[in-house]
Amino acid sequence: MERKNILLLFALICAVYFIGVGVDTMDVDASQYAGISREMKASGSYLQVYEQGKEYLDKPPFLFWASAVSMKIFGENNLGYKFPSILFAIFAVFGTFRFAKLFYDKTVALLSAAVLATCQAIFLITSDIRTDTILMSWVIIAMWQLAEWYKSKKILHFILGAAAIGAGMVTKGPIALFVPIFAFGSHFVLKREWKQIFQPIYLLGILVIAIVLIPMSIGLYQQFDLHPEKTVNGLKNVSGLKFFYWTQSFGRITGENVWNNNAPFSFLFENLLWGMLPWTLFFVAGLVYEIIRIIRNRLFVGRNEEFLTTGGFILSYCSLGISKYQLPHYIYVVLPFIAIITTKMMYRLFWEKKLPLLRNILTPIQWIVCTALVVAPAMILLYSFPSTSVWPWVIPVISLIVAIFLLMSKQVNKKLITVSLALIVGLNIFLSSWFYPQLLQYQSGNVVGRYIFDQKIPADKFFFYKFTGSGKAIHFYAKNIISKIDSIDQATTGTYLYTSDEGLKEIQQSGKLHVIEKEGLDYHVTSLSGKFLNKNTRDEQCKKYYVVKML
Fold this sequence. Notes:
Layout: H1 3-19, H2 29-43, E1 50-51, E2 54-55, H3 62-74, H4 78-101, H5 106-118, H6 120-125, H7 132-152, H8 155-172, H9 175-190, H10 201-225, H11 240-247, H12 251-254, H13 267-275, H14 280-296, H15 308-321, H16 335-350, H17 356-384, H18 391-408, H19 415-439, H20 444-454, E3 462-464, H21 473-478, E4 483-484, E5 496-499, H22 501-510, E6 514-522, H23 530-533, E7 543-550
Parallel strand pairs: 3-4, 3-5
Antiparallel strand pairs: 1-2, 5-7, 6-7
């Protein structure tokens, strides 16, 4: 592929990421983190983190720091919150290219970057922003720099790699340290490079990581360890340092962490099957191939081979998979490894023309995947979120025309891969410009938050009252902290109440004069179901919300 075409492809992908800026944050995590970032920006408290004025002890602060600073530049809006994470996603794509280029030729490196940049998981986490986007970036940057040191022994690369690990830990905890350990540890063992396992320079790495962790550690110590009398998450005598360095990560394995959703070991892999679309087939085939190959080689990696990606993925997956609490995005930290594993299989099949039987099996199935990428927008427009306007159809139609052009063009090589790239980009332009905005109309927190801001309702005149949904987004879009009341007697004249059916019934039974200013449907939009997506059965899956003004 020519240089200008490569630049055009990645520019288009970046544009899709920024189209997602127009999509509101989704409950619970993204809305919560946006609210915390806004609150941090407003208060100026960067080392001690608060949520709605209360002590916050859960995620490390890097995302909040980055988004709070971004909001100072772009304002308290979607762009202000999302810009740093989108920027780090682009860094991750570049880091994947540079890391892969150390071990493979430029074609594999570029394709690895393209696979990472266009898998559905990346499009999701550049729109529904959580800590994993930045974490993934720090980890692959650390891997790139440490791999540079491994090959050149230049100490600057080692220091930069250690600093990136530290920054990753400030983003989401010790997993940022363990992924590189898993990757290089398995690589050293299978290459029988025993001298690499223990080296004095690793002490320097520990020092660099410790220095990077100092600001966060000071904040945790001052906020929690110095104040054992504070009640945090229902507990007293809570150590912020212990929580971060032990309970939040290892406690999910030992049971010390109260979060437990009993997810099976296969949970993360099952979710990767859609997260890696449209490249899922090649990822699964590539992973199985790598495992079989290493077993046949009696757990030995040759001189010119690497096991960083496969070993890093497998060991990281196992450590995350035994956790008592899992969510689909937890495995996204190793998406760059997955992209390289996927690309290696695609390169074998379509560039080196190896494994012809497997290629003949996967090729028609991948064309079915491509067909599904075309059909999905049409199904959404016909059966889920219809439009009386023509423009939502424009993007799917253009995607189809581009795909047909690529198929018919004699100048386009590797048509299956090129068409897959074009269609997944087109699909996500459609999702960000039509599907997600329609979907977010059913998340009442952002709708009501904007209502509060537009109507200039003071925060001391607006309250949650027996609202049964999440409503996390309300604080960010109201640009204020919205409190709750527990008794209708607390609702004075001029007060607005954000409530559900139960609360409305109690208001009506109280005999107090009131008027319903706003009402609509509320749904937990990150837990989609077939019945919700079906326009004919959607309403029965939703709960009603009301904004009631007391007279």
